[in-house]
Amino acid sequence: MTMELNRGSLTMQSLWVSGTSQLDMAITGGTGDFSSARGAVRYWDIATPKERVRAEILH
């Protein structure tokens, strides 16, 4: 998955099982200001109107 942001993009990877409401993804890199990014992203309430995301980005 790639997330586009104002200062570049983040690339993330994980396996999501349909029907689960939470997902943790590893940040595998990015572009722009995030070209050397590492860290983790957590999604909640996937594919619902309440979907949320929190990223912990390390450079």
Description:
- This protein has 59 residues and is mostly beta strands.
- The chain is 0% helix and 56% strand.
- It contains no helices and five strands.
- The chain has strands at residues 2-5, 8-13, 22-30, 38-44, 52-58.
- It has a five-stranded antiparallel β-sheet, with no helix packed on it.
- A hairpin with an 8-residue loop joins strand 2 (8-13) and strand 3 (22-30).
- It is elongated and about 35 Å long.
- It starts with a strand and ends with a strand.
- The model has no long low-confidence stretch (mean pLDDT 92).
Low-confidence stretches: none
Strand content: over 45%
- Name the average pLDDT: 92
Give me the count of strands: 5
| Range of helix content | under 10%
Structural classification: mainly beta
- From the alpha carbons, calculate the radius of gyration and give it in angstroms: 12 Å
SSE string, helices as H and strands as E: EEEEE
User: Termini separation (Å)?
Assistant: 19 Å
Shape: elongated
Biggest sheet descriptor? 5 strands, antiparallel
Please tally the helical runs, counting DSSP H or I stretches of 4 or more residues.
0
- Spatially, the strands of the biggest sheet line up as 1-2-3-4-5
Which characteristics define this entry?
59 residues; mainly beta; 5-stranded antiparallel beta sheet
Quick overview of this protein structure:
The protein has 59 residues and is mostly beta strands. The protein has strands at 2-5, 8-13, 22-30, 38-44, 52-58. Strand 2 (8-13) and strand 3 (22-30) form a beta hairpin.
